[in-house]
Structure formats: C-alpha cells, structure tokens
Design a protein that fits this description.
- The protein is of the alpha+beta class.
- The protein has one domain.
- It is built from two helices and nine strands, in the order αββαβββββββ.
- It has an eight-stranded antiparallel beta barrel with strand order 1-2-3-4-5-6-7-9.
Length: 190
C-alpha cells in the first residue's frame, strides 16, 4: 500500500480547522454581565460595580444533580458537589476578584432569561465583624440571580453568604447571613 501524502495533509488541515471551530464555539459560550450592586441596611450602605463572567453553563442533568444534593444534605451537600466541578466563571466587585463561580444555569422566561449563579464559597459575610454577629458556619454559598429581559437592562439579586434547603413544594429556599439581599440594577451584557 502506498502512502498518500496529500491526503494526509488534507486530513490534518481538516482536523485543525475542526479544533479551531470547537475552541471558538467554547469561547462563544462565555458571557460577561455588569451590574451596580447596592447594599443598604443595618450593616451600612454600599455601592459597587459587579462583573459576572460565565464561561460554562450547567445542563439540565447538572441542575438535577445539584437539586438532589440540596434535598439530601442541604448547603453542605451542595457545597461538596460544587467543589468537585470545574470553574464555571468568576465574580468581581469593583477591581477585586470576589469569587469563583461553580454553577451557572440559564433558563428562558417569557420576557428573556434568568441566570442562577452559585459560588462554592461565600462572597462576603456582610455584618460578620459586628459585635452581635452570629457565627458564619453553614453560610457557605454565594448566590446571584440575574433577570435579563430580551432587550434593555436587567435586574437581579445577590446573596453573598447563604444556606440553602428544599421546602415542601420542592423549591430552593435561601437563608442569607446578614438578612439583607444585595440588589443588582443596570444589569447589561458586555
């Protein structure tokens, strides 16, 4: 059998083009959003720019696995599962890194999309330095919800340090360490 060098070169070029397309498709999945984060309450007021970069979106099977973990063991089980997952993005407050995202789930709504974003570590324990602060144990996840309309600016919420559980109706319920949800305004896709 005779080796066909030109056919070999064509196969190599097609393989390289296919790999380049796969890398481009993976990069195309990365999405970045900016928002204004506003916290106001007993721990003081604060405004910061929030940047969310989502590089991997969870599948329905990954969502179901996370829900099963929460149902079985609450926050601790969810955190254990999330720590085994590759990074799915990053959070930034102002110019500082604020956390590594382990889970991003996008769901289409009647008016646009809803993104659920979870870190396997708290983003910050608001109020943890106050004299009457409760212990931070168990508030092990950071949560961000982005409500993105089909056009225009969105809104959202951030729970920097939370516990999670499943209620009797099968919905995830969060308990925020500080009792104060950070409001996100002017959410835009970059």
């Amino acid at each position: 059998m005779r080796f066909n060098f030109s056919a070999f070169i064509r196969v190599c070029l097609l393989g390289a083009i296919s790999l380049t397309g796969a890398v481009s498709a993976a990069e195309a999945q990365s999405e970045t959003y900016t928002a204004i984060a506003k916290a106001q309450g007993k721990v003081g007021a604060g405004i910061a720019d929030l940047t969310v970069t989502a590089s991997h979106f969870a599948t329905d099977a990954e969502r179901d696995a996370l829900l099963a973990a929460v149902k079985q063991g609450g926050t601790a089980a969810a955190r254990t599962l999330l720590r085994t997952k590759p990074d799915a993005g990053k959070l930034q407050l102002g110019s500082r890194p604020a956390g590594t995202i382990k889970y991003v789930y996008a769901r289409n709504t009647a008016g646009g999309r809803l993104l659920t974003i979870i870190t396997a570590e708290p983003v910050v324990l608001l109020g943890s330095g106050l004299p009457d602060a409760k212990p931070g144990a168990g508030y092990d996840l950071g949560l961000v919800l982005l409500d993105l309309p089909a056009s225009g600016q969105g809104k959202g919420e951030m729970v920097p340090a939370a516990k999670v559980k499943i209620d009797a109706q099968g919905a995830i319920v969060t308990e925020d360490y500080s009792g104060e949800t950070v409001q996100l305004t002017q959410v835009t896709k970059k």
